[in-house]
Amino acid sequence: MMMNLDHLTLKKGLGFILLCFSTVLVKAQADTVYRHLPDARQRIPLYVINNQIIGSGLNINPNDIEAINVFKGTENIPPQFRNLSKDGILFINLKKGIEIKTRSFKEIKDWLDIKEDVRFAVDGFYVDDMNLAVAVSSICQLEVIKKQQQNKSVPDVINIWTLEPGSRKGFVPPPPVAGKPGVIYIR
Prior knowledge:
Elements: H1 2-28, E1 46-49, E2 53-54, E3 65-71, E4 89-94, E5 102-104, H2 105-111, E6 118-122, E7 125-126, E8 133-135, E9 141-145, E10 156-161
Parallel strand pairs: 1-4, 2-8, 6-10
Antiparallel strand pairs: 1-2, 3-4, 5-8, 6-7, 9-10
């Protein structure tokens, strides 16, 4: 009788552990909803101007702004922007007549003289809607990532960085101070 109770307890314990691991795995894989490159923007929201222009670091006169909408979750974000930011989106609508110089993804591809099919990413997140444009003054760097030789079906990727290199990863803690053994450093 005692043996069956221990076996049953062990079985329930293993079931509980498996449930905990599966919950952790689901939470750990939650980021896979966002398709992105290994080097992608972290902890910085995406800026969208007039519902079609992707940009950041723009010098916009506050008097030219008609409205600002902030989206923190994915529920209310329009579908064409859902993959572009896991850290929220700021929609800025400018008053009529305010122009921002932009480039379409096709114009960027032509400018780089790329003839084959490519995928586009902005700050490391893949773009789903090719009708969007990027503010020219927001483009900090264009990064062409060539397909792997062994997998010809994977297209090249053009990653458009709108963030300066220092602000792409969010806060990165400084490396630990190397010192003599037995010495404690206090920050």
